[in-house]
Amino acid sequence: MPDPTPPGPTTASAPSATAGKPIRILLADDHALVRRGVRLILDREPDLEVVAEAGDGAEAIEAARSQEIDLAVLDIAMPRLTGLQATRELVALKPGLRILMLTMHDNEQYLFQALKAGACGYVLKSVADRDLVAACRAAMRNEPFLYPGAVTALIRNYLERVRHGEEDPDQFLTPREEEVLKLVAEGHSSKEIAEILFISVKTVHRHRANLLHKLGLHDRLELTRYAIRAGLIEP
């Protein structure tokens, strides 16, 4: 459920649709039939509206410059600029913009490149009718959306880094910080976390700020990625 408390400094820049107005979406795919099908999925939802379309990454960037958008849904494989290249450009152009990758590729390499570029979700076209709407809403709540196989890939990648000694063992969290991190990663609001742990919302915000500072992270999405890597939440 939405967090009714005012956001702290770390979340103040997170985008959200204007009250009563739908989330404004840019849809980019080089196949017009695919765009048409995806648009039908999104536009039938009252809180989602496709306001711009693009046939490649370069057109997507131009559309983002000329129109007010909250969320970009990009195909990975597009001419001129790929979805990955466009994501990097869009993150620099509009740092608060949320970006989802919509792709036919169930591929770990693409997944990691998309997350590194700045995407907050990775949705397979084969299940877009099931997952895409939920992914759009999760993105606007500043939460990641990954299909189950992607979560497994992230955990496998983490275990590989542990085996090769690439994880820093000195980033210790207190037991209470781990509790707060786990609950944040599971999608609980600050009010819900306060009720579960019998602490005040203000204390939850302080723990979250401490987590961001201690781990060198910037927002809820990065906390969730860390929790997955650390094995605090299960796939």
From TrEMBL:
SUPFAM superfamilies from the UniProt entry: C-terminal effector domain of the bipartite response regulators, CheY-like
Pfam families: GerE, Response_reg
Modified residues (4-aspartylphosphate): 75
UniProt keyword Transcription present: yes
InterPro entries listed in its UniProt record: CheY-like_superfamily (IPR011006), NreC/VraR/RcsB-like_REC (IPR058245), Sig_transdc_resp-reg_C-effctor (IPR016032), Sig_transdc_resp-reg_receiver (IPR001789), Tscrpt_reg_LuxR_C (IPR000792), WalR-like (IPR039420)
Alphabetical keyword list: DNA-binding, Phosphoprotein, Transcription, Transcription regulation
All residue ranges annotated as the Response regulatory domain in the record: 24-140
Gene Ontology BP annotations: phosphorelay signal transduction system; regulation of DNA-templated transcription
Gene Ontology MF: a single term: DNA binding
Chain ranges of the HTH luxR-type domain: 166-231
Protein name: DNA-binding response regulator
Native source organism of the sequence: Streptomyces antimycoticus
